[in-house]
From TrEMBL:
Top-level taxonomic group: Bacteria
Keywords from the UniProt entry: Hydrolase
Name of the protein in question: Serine aminopeptidase S33 domain-containing protein
Taxonomic path: Bacteria, Deltaproteobacteria, SAR324 cluster
Organism of this sequence: SAR324 cluster bacterium
GO cellular component, one term: membrane
Hydrolase listed as a keyword: yes
Keyword Hydrolase: yes
InterPro entries documented for this protein: AB_hydrolase_fold, AB_hydrolase_sf, Hydrolase_4
Amino acid sequence: MAKFKIRWKMNAHKIVLILILLASFSFIGCTAKQEQYQTSAEKFSFPWDQGEFSDYLLATKKYISRNRFFLDAQHRKLEIEANSPFELYPDPQTCPISGKPEKGLLLIHGLSDSPYSMRDLAEEFSKKCFLVRTILLPGHGTRPGDSTAMTADEWYQVSTFALETLKKDVKHVYAGGFSTGANISTWLALKDPSIRGLVLFSPAFSLKWEYPTSLATLDLFIDWLNKNPIEDYAKYTSFSINSLRQFYITSARVQEEITKGNKLKIPVFIALSGDDSVVDVSYVKNVFQENLDFPGNRMMYFTQSQPSPQQQEDPRIVYRVGNLPDQQIASISHMAIPNRINNPHYGKNGDYRSCHMTDSNSDYEPCMQAERASLWHGAWGSEAEGKIFSRLTFNPYFDEMVAMSLETILSPKVN
């Protein structure tokens, strides 16, 4: 079996030191900011205490159309639709409904992402008779510059609004999300006993690097951790210092509840990759075993090789091998998990290729220029002699994962 290495991101404290040194030169020869790195002319506002979800959908789409920095003016409609929140009603062919839908699911996207990253999951759950709703976390979907002014409190505000309006429109509510969105939905479930189940994809309860205290003041010197080329119409590829600070807040709130000994007595499904370059997977597995101890809970854990029976300490954890040479996949990445293999944007033959594989981006050009048939896919930092890698953006186990998540949260033990 082929051997693959993964180069993890450098320590956050080293990143901060480098940024401070770089910032010392930013006062010399300053030029005007590029438009995409400036904040929008207006900030999104909405009457959260009295608006309906349909009003929110319309207001958000109009806001995006007025304030988005478009990658391609000819594809305005595509970019607006990809970044706008949406709802999908149960499939009328398979889910005859009189009155309210029985089940509703709120899905929340991750940091730098958009509701597009929840599209494949939403379609599958709507087929299983869920009313599915997504939201746009403030600071996302318009231009990277808006991430410099967004706050976690705004994220919790829109999430709470979406949950409360969903409660009015269905009989039973469920929640879930990807990465940061998984953190937010977990916190909501810890606070709101009406949530009957959670589906969490790459939950970022803890990160691979400790929170550098200098982040609290770093943006006095510099606003950006990196500025990558803007190539993806469905997410930001540049990260502001503020976005990381708000990201950490969502992790800290979950950790605070865990430290208090709070447990979720509802079914929870988690999908997680052992090669995740962002998440502290050991911490998440420990939370799953110690704090999410409902008997019907399941985790799908992607790993380089099948563990021995002795290593499979929890029968609720199902292991799937992410090293699939026949598919030119070396490992499962953080961002791959919520996307199906035939996704038109992130799928195997999609129109997007993620080539930011290292801190130095030294592999970027070879990746972008490689023929599709010769390209390998893996987690951030994947490398192997004689192979060119892009970051894996789709999940080869997507269908099985969705089936397992549905089986978990719809367990007859709690419904």
